[in-house]
Amino acid sequence: MRLTRLFTLISAILALLVCGVQGRSLWSEWRQYQSAERGLQALQLVEASMRAAEKLSFERGPSNAVMGDGYPAAAAKQERLRSARNDTNNALRQLQQQLDQRDATAALDQALREARRNVDQLAAQPPDGRTPAQLNSAVERMYALVPLALDTVTAATHASEQAYPRITRLLVKSRLAVELREYAGRLGSTLTVPLATAQPLTREQQERLQFLRGRLEQLRQLIRMNSSEADQAQAVQAALARMDSDYFARGQQIISAVEQASSSPRASGAQRYGMDTAQFAQRYVPTMAPILAVRDALLQEAQLQAHREFQQARHELGWAMLNGAAILMVLVALLIIVRVRVVAPLLRATRAVVRLGNGDFTAPSRISRRKDEIGDMLRALATLRENSMERQRLEQERAHLIEELKTRADTDYLTGILNRRAFATAGNLRLRGAREKDESLAVILFDIDHFKSVNDCYGHDAGDQVLIRIAEVVRATLRDGEILARYGGEEFVVMPSYCGLEAARALAERLRVAIEQEPLTLSDGYILRVTASFGVAVAHGPHAALDDLFHSADLALYRAKSQGRNRVETQL
Ligand SMILES: Nc1nc2c(ncn2[C@@H]2O[C@H](COP(=O)(O)OP(=O)(O)OP(=O)(O)O)[C@@H](O)[C@H]2O)c(=O)[nH]1
Asked: Which residues of 434-460 are buried (b: 16+ CB within 10 A; e: fewer)?
């Protein structure tokens, strides 16, 4: 696998692992946060349901007052009942607004409508027409409303208890306070009928009073039980103290007074109790208020704790998010560092090595200042590149030298044209071609006339210049494929392309004229005119040999010299 791919794969796996771990932790914190948020909402719902229960409980007082009054009931009592019902309706509306399911209070609404209708029907009858059984039934119906109100939010209570297990006890206690208020109300309601009818308490009513007292005491003990730190909260303690003094002392005294009056043989008729239901309610109902204050104090404490835990959940979620972001950033930074500091230089080094292997030294090599192993490697690579470049330069120099030596070996040092050795090679090649193609091959040998006297008169350097210029003149006269070489001293040889004796002779003649007519200007300004003598020979057939050809051309040249020079002679 390529290094880049491996690095990408490792980066992706690391990123996935970190994201997975962080995501899991974030998800758990998020769920706690959401659960805390839902718990808070549920807590508000619990509070709303308790308030509704309170109002329902409270409505019983004015209801009893109206049922226990004459017909029609006093306007003030009717007004109190209307106001109490309004309060209940408002509390129920608020509860409905907070409940997700709109029909969650349908059963309660129905029961409330029927209970109120019952109260109104009884209140619309003259007092004599209201039997104790009817009155009891109406009161019982009112009693049944409170548990219904509390049941509407049982699920919500459960949700908040799950979100905040630590405040469960507070919620349980506040519910117990609602129950306590309910039983306290029932205790008062038990006296409604005897007070309305000015009759002594029946045995059943007395037993009910005993039962309710016992239940109230039980609830009181349960609420006072020290079960958590929250119980020690100042507001809760103060509310409990007030409940004890107001309800369990004063409220119970009022109940006891009615009880005693009921069993007193001295009192009878309308004066038996010294008060009617409304007066009783006026005195008794305010003593129950501290019970609700206990409920409120407990609820408030629960809310405070829930808020604290909600804030804590939010705080922890924020930290988890920050933590996750920081870890991701560190990971990304580490990956970037590894990529920039290790992977990228390694890749560059690999590419450089590959280029070096291919003989490409063009890549710029900055000397790395890094002090780690990568720096060592890059420096070694730069040295390797330098060495390779040097070796390549030396090899090129060597090749150049070999080429130059080869050229020198084939070239006449003075005139720059082919030397005799090179001419022999080229001549033999061409001779082989001539044999293969069955063509004629000619050789023109020419020698500068009286060259010794040039040397003698103008010096050896001037002689050299003459040789150079003659080579230039002849080369300029020849065409492609016609070979010129210095045969030795002041002697030159020309090999035309495959041709016969006449064509070769014509070429020799052209060369002779060119030399004769070319004024040779020397470096010191002298202008010389020289001539040359030419010997031409031709070879043909499978047995043609270069030496024989030269020999024949040499003989012809000799004749040209001996017959007066500056002329062309051909083989005989
Ligand atoms: N300057 C110079 N002279 C050379 C060179 N090679 C040969 N010579 C001279 O060429 C002359 C040849 O002279 P000879 O062989 O006597 O012939 P010639 O004087 O040309 O007379 P003919 O050939 O008979 O016309 C000698 O003096 C050589 O020293 C050379 O490379 N440079």
From this structure: bbeeeebbbbbbbbbbebeebbeebee
**Ligand 1 centroid distance, CA of 448 (Å):** 8
Residue ranges, comma separated, of all CATH 3.30.70.270 domains in the chain are 415-570
Name the class of domain 415-570: alpha beta
> What's the CA gap between 157 and 134, in Å, rounded?
35
Tell me the C-alpha distance between 264 and 339, whole Å.
Answer: 100
CA of 456 to the centre of ligand 1 (A): 10
Where do the H-state alpha helices sit in 191-251? 192-197, 203-224, 234-243
CATH topology of domain 168-312: Four Helix Bundle (Hemerythrin (Met), subunit A) (1.20.120)
CA of residue 489 to ligand 1 center, whole Å: 6
Domain with CATH 1.20.120 in the chain: 34-160, 168-312
Closest atom of ligand 1 to 461 CA is 1
- Which residue's alpha carbon is nearest to atom 14 within ligand 1? 452
Please state the φ and ψ torsions of residue 365, each to the nearest 5 degrees: -120, 100
Residue nearest ligand 1's atom 11 by CA: 452
State which ligand 1 atom lies nearest to the alpha carbon of 460.
1
Q: What are phi and psi of 459, to 5 degrees?
A: 100, 160
Residue nearest (by alpha carbon) to ligand 1 atom 31: 489
Query: CB under 6 Å to ligand 1: residues?
Result: 447-452, 455, 460, 463-464, 467, 489-490, 561, 565
Within 322-420, strands assigned E span none
Give the sign of the dihedral formed by CA 84, CA 89, CA 95, CA 101. positive
Centre of ligand 1 to C-alpha 533, Å, is 13
ipTM: 0.97
Whether 280 contacts 237, CB under 8 Å: no
Which residue do the tokens 């309060």 mark?
87
Residue nearest to atom 15 of ligand 1 (CA): 452
Span 306-323, pLDDT tens digits: 888 889 889 999 998 999
**Can you tell me the distance from the alpha carbon of 482 to that of 435, in angstroms, rounded to the nearest whole number?**
18
- Cβ of 154: how many Cβ atoms within 10 Å? 11
Q: pLDDT tens across 17-55, in order?
A: 988 988 898 899 898 888 878 777 877 888 888 888 889
- Is CATH 3.30.230 the right assignment for the domain spanning 34-160? no
